[in-house]
Amino acid sequence: MLKLDHIQKSFDGVPVLRDITLQVEDGEIVSILGPSGCGKTTLLNLILGIVEADNGTISYNGEDLTHMAMEKRGFNIVFQDYALFPNLNVYQNITYGLRNKPNISSKEEVEDLIDLLGLREHLTKRVDQLSGGQKQRVALARTMVMKPRILLLDEPLSALDGVIKESIKDRIKTIAREYHLTTIIVTHDPEEALTLSDRVLIIDKGNISQYAKPEEIVHQPKNDFVRKFILNQLEIKRNNIYALFGDMTQLAATM
Question: Where are the domains of the chain?
């Protein structure tokens, strides 16, 4: 279990996260959702260990991580731009991290992951020969072979659309279930958060507006910000949300 207690963070005296307290259960998929500048990327970086909190504590399975270096936490991130090595082919990208830690994943485990992510036919290709969705799958595979304790994803679907986006969403959910892997996703897109996650954390100006299951967010928004943010954003994509949560008339009526 990942726990954050009263986390605060400021930059140059400007508060970015004001008082964040939450816990993420093992194997959960949690999306951090909110408008630009709300603090969601800062929260992801705090969990990863890129930056330290000004106040509060972060722990995982009872171990205090608050001041622990990033490389000792055992968490891995897939960045928005994939950060693949253009001079290496797909297989070399996937297994790059195993050069220094060869015993983390066996050859059989690597092969199973390649098949799970549908990358078998692309192994000898260069990065510039891949589509966006293929690059995303390679980035996921490269991270997964290192067996992270928590998988962090920064806007994993922002460069994708249509069928490719739905395919990657399915892959992420499959990986989380197959490996019982706690997965934390930063996104600005409510549809992604609501259709991909077990729970959604909505942040507004550095504060938690609501942390709940997707159906609760849609049908029982906690405050005016959640109501307006979710409704306004989802009007464009109402058909996809109807399929999962039903008509949003009830949500609109509460505004």
Answer: 2-73+151-219, 75-147
Written as six digits, the tokens of 168 are 């990657």
Nearest-angstrom CA–CA distance, 207 and 13: 17
Alpha helices in the chain (DSSP H): 40-48, 70-73, 90-94, 107-116, 132-144, 162-178, 190-196, 214-219, 224-234, 238-245, 249-253
Q: Which CATH architecture has domain 2-73+151-219?
A: 3-Layer(aba) Sandwich (3.40)
81-137 confidence digits (pLDDT tens)? 888 999 999 999 999 999 988 889 999 999 999 999 999 999 999 999 999 999 999
- The mean-pLDDT minimum among 53-57, 204-208, 248-252 falls in 248-252
Mention every residue, 6+ apart, whose C-beta is less than 8 A from residue 187.
31, 32, 33, 155, 156, 157, 158, 193
| 171 touches 140 (CB < 8 A) | yes
Q: In what order do the strands lie in the sheet with 207-212?
A: 75-78, 150-154, 182-187, 29-33, 199-204, 207-212
Would you report the helix, strand and coil content of the chain in percent, each value rounded to 5?
40, 25, 35
Q: What is the CA radius of gyration of the chain?
A: 19
Contact 195, 188 (CB under 8 A): no
Sign of CA dihedral 215, 219, 221, 225: positive
pLDDT in tens, 157-181: 887 877 888 888 998 999 999 999 9
61-84 pLDDT tens trace: 999 999 999 999 999 999 888 889
The pTM of this model reads 0.87
